[in-house]
Amino acid sequence: MKRKTAFIHSNDYLNYNFNDDHPFNQKRIAMTIDLLRMMNLLEDSDLVAPRMAEDEELALIHDRQYIEVVKEAGHAEQTPALAASFGIGTEDCPAFVNMHEATALAVGGTLRAAELVMAGEYQHAVNLAGGLHHGFRGRASGFCIYNDCSVAIAYLRQKYDARVLYIDTDAHHGDGVQWAFYDDPNVLTLSFHETGKYLFPGTGNITERGDGQGYGFSVNVPLDAFTEDDSWLEAYYAVLPTVARGFKPDIIVTQNGCDAHTFDPLTHLSTTMRIYQEVPRLARDLADELCDGRLIATGGGGYDIWRVVPRAWSLLWAELSGQDVPQDTRIPQTWIDKYQAESPVQLAPTMFDPEGIFPDIPRRPEITTKNKNTVEKALLYCPKG
């Protein structure tokens, strides 16, 4: 059954553009929209325009001085020397023209999603330009300038007094959101990510459980490198329902980075497109069960923009809007014809990865056992239901 779900979008989202060589490339959103339209999964009536986040809203999370530095850096001919102290002008987060405006629009998209869902106008809302989970109070980090997830959660707390369950399935730990609410028992952050032993940002250990009254409300599931679908999903299904039912949220906010796929060039996990249908499906079912369906989904990481992100985010939209994508669904040839010439790799012909196309994972039993132990420890002190 098709559900009333908002697709928050503006073509101005593509202005969040560090440079042509940077791995964070929002062309992936345009490619996703093209794929959805060619599959008849997205209509004009689904689209909702974002709004700009106001400075007062950004300041719910970010320091005022940092906001002013972001504004200045986006309008200067040369990056101000002071910007480096705020993480701007680095290889990860170089300054770009209109940086404040582009990022405030991405934040405003997630705020718009929150308003629509809390007002009951839509059951779910998707903002693929969001998911900038590494942004800190006074520092850019990991391709993220402002942290839309944190700002939206703070907004939900302030305006609606809502208890928020934040679910982060990016391959990189959702550090910025975790630290923003580390002592808040009304926000539970749950992150499934590759262990930080060898991957940025290096945090997300099981022992990061929260502080003070918020102890137990930060839950981390660091998975071993080369974790494949079965073990990844086993952890997801073991932890998420237990934590969600124990916490009893008023709304769920998800970050849907899709860089855990084996094709992703920046991480070391080994999942396939299968998990990108299962992840939003369970989150949606729990939202139905626990909070009248209220769910906001954001984008996130994903650096194979050709073979992974458009397929993964199309599955996200299909699940949240109640549209089925069968396992044998083929990619429309018109979409392949449009993008194949500029793609450095052969585009996938099907929505799901056929079984057996990826090599077996060495140490698979050892990795699976290690992840089972991680799950047991992750559940020790969190709410359980």
TrEMBL record:
<comment type="similarity">
    <text>Belongs to the histone deacetylase family.</text>
</comment>
<dbReference type="GO" id="GO:0045150">
    <property type="term" value="P:acetoin catabolic process"/>
</dbReference>
<keyword id="KW-0006">Acetoin catabolism</keyword>
<dbReference type="InterPro" id="IPR023801">
    <property type="entry name" value="His_deacetylse_dom"/>
</dbReference>
<protein>
    <recommendedName>
        <fullName>Acetoin utilization protein AcuC</fullName>
    </recommendedName>
</protein>
<dbReference type="InterPro" id="IPR023696">
    <property type="entry name" value="Ureohydrolase_dom_sf"/>
</dbReference>
<dbReference type="InterPro" id="IPR003085">
    <property type="entry name" value="AcuC"/>
</dbReference>
<dbReference type="InterPro" id="IPR037138">
    <property type="entry name" value="His_deacetylse_dom_sf"/>
</dbReference>
<dbReference type="InterPro" id="IPR000286">
    <property type="entry name" value="HDACs"/>
</dbReference>
<dbReference type="GO" id="GO:0040029">
    <property type="term" value="P:epigenetic regulation of gene expression"/>
</dbReference>
<comment type="pathway">
    <text>Ketone degradation; acetoin degradation.</text>
</comment>
<dbReference type="Pfam" id="PF00850">
    <property type="entry name" value="Hist_deacetyl"/>
</dbReference>
<dbReference type="GO" id="GO:0004407">
    <property type="term" value="F:histone deacetylase activity"/>
</dbReference>
